[in-house]
Input
Amino acid sequence: MKMVTCRSPRKMLPVLFTFFISALYAQKNRIIAIETQHNAIALQVGEDLRVATVYFGTKLKDTSEYKLVHQMYRRGDDYSGILNAAYTPAGSRNLVEPAIEVTHANGNTSLDLQYVSHSIDKTDANVSVTSVQLRDPAYALEVTLFFKVFYREDVVEQWAVIRNKEKGSITMQKFASANLYLTAGNYWLKQFHGDWAKEMQPEETQLTHGIKVLDSKLGTRAHLYQPPAFIVSLDKPATEDEGKVLLGQLEWSGNFKIDLEVDPLNNLRLIAGINPFASEYVLKPNQQFETPAFVFTFSDKGIGEASRRLHRWARNYKLYDGNGSRMTLLNNWESTFFNFNETVLADLIKDTKKLGVDVFLLDDGWFGNKYPRNDDKAGLGDWQENVQKLPHGIGYLVKEAQNNGVKFGIWVEPEMVNPKSELYFKHPEWVIKQPNREEHLFRNQLVLDLSNPKVQDFVFGILDNLFTKNPDLAFIKWDCNAVIYNAYSSFLNKQSQLYVDYVKGLYKVLDRVRAKYRKVQMMLCSGGGGRVDYGALKYFNEFWLSDNTDPFERIFIQYEYSYFYPAISHSNHVTDWGKQPLKYRTDVAMMGKLGFDIVVNKLPPQDLKFAQQAVKTYDSIKNVIWHGDLFRLADPHENPFASVIYVNEAQDRAVMFNYLTGNRYGNGTLSPIKLKGLNADKKYTVREINLYPGTPSPLRSNTVYSGDYLMTAGFNPDVNARRMSVILEVAEAR
Ligand code: GLA
Output
């Protein structure tokens, strides 16, 4: 339903006002149900016009029954009456963590929010946006809560728009995106932490009363220590196939804060948004602020189903070209580091062809003349080809690639500057650093001030120049290797807006890049996975999970990322990290989007033959991996092996990956692993693929199994110390 807004001539005002007030009172006790295919959030407009969350979880058949639910709880008194506020204001009667905190134009710090209206806008049969408008009865400040519902995927994106209608400026101290309210016996948080080469280390704990905070204050490479993605289980830790579980993340590539507060009534208040740390934000009269979205999904059937829902949503609606295709590649980072020239690269381009992959990706080290980029100490900011290494420019290499029937891609790190660069001397005012303090570098570099539109133009220009000169450039690896120290912008008047305006500036640049260069495929990298979130992935086809490509470590890292991000977005490279044979390394990389970063011409003949065949095998199964549903079958944290399966929508093809992860004598798959996601009534064959040349498979491939058998009795891939990785193709028997 849509409420009337007053835009009529003056004399009509009293009549309309009376109508408005009576319409408003008719809304009391009204339920606003935000429903997906299986789940619901029910908001209720209270007697006092405050909007509260009265239900969160599995959808009820009868919407009118949502209002009955909370009457059944006897958990004590809520003194404030707004513990379950749909968006908790600070400074009035609230006693707990707020979602929003402001200082009004007159210096007053209280805020109250009451219902004004709500509406539902249907985009199409699957997508709709419910918006709930709130207003402070004492101050001209409005907040609209948005709930974008992806019905089939069971996903909701929630954000808020805060509007200043006061006569003077207001200051926002906190401006969260979402304020959920969950009810259960107890709550379990699975969070992730990490560092360079150690991304996505999981930890699961029971939430106790008080507040647990997940946050980042790192600025750019904000997710280096902690990503904004997490899992909350209700009543007990959810497993892959059981339990009530919420998967959520803030779509924001900067500082974030997730408050998880178990309140006095033993309910969970979950507030997610931009980190208020050092980020006061001013709104002038008539200005509004739109928060980033918090995206979440809920399942009462375990983490597996929740992550499949998130994957489907990402592929259909968020990840750049999520349902499209990707390119396999050869990268030169680990094989040359900064040490290359045109001849070396021309040879690598030939190797790209020899290997059979789609793109040659030239990494760091191709630019800078006065301060050549021969190591990571100089050159960032000077995006002209180094004339010694590349006398004929990038154009020559793009042509070389074309002559060899492959595509060409290039690495950039456009947000950064080395003090040893021409840019640094030319535009010191573009660099984020404190005027009166010693510089503090991260990887010998500083961050450019993307809150400044001139810097945005410069960064866009780096990409634009590359594409203008080389229209056939097919792939970009966009890196970001430094955090923000000494946060200070010589452009901004209000320093506390830097962290937020930086990210907004970054998105403005990426919007411009994507508006002009739609087809180019882009990899999101941040010295590994230092910046992975759906705010950024809207612009990127894939992301670099970690610089750690030791396949053994990588199984764990990929496994954890897979809770939130579909395989098509995982850039996995075969490198020389780790002690495992090439087959193991390749099998692990095949679990996502395959790439290589090895010295092809040094591969022994059998290894080369294997790698070439592996690329062909990958081509034949990649559609199932990229577009199919993921089912995790064996968790390497709980077993000395890992196993996952991707199943296509028609359930007539699946690919199962199995790896040995334990080192002890006799480790392996001693029992069959139960497959998932197949059609119980269909018949399938199971065939081992990607075998190393000359190695026969002990598995019989001519037996026909029912889906029921494979999912109930299971199949043993026979993983052991002699067969450390096994890929199985499961195909419907016709
Ligand atoms: C980061 C990236 C690497 C590589 C180097 C280049 O560490 O994660 O993949 O591109 O930068 O300097």
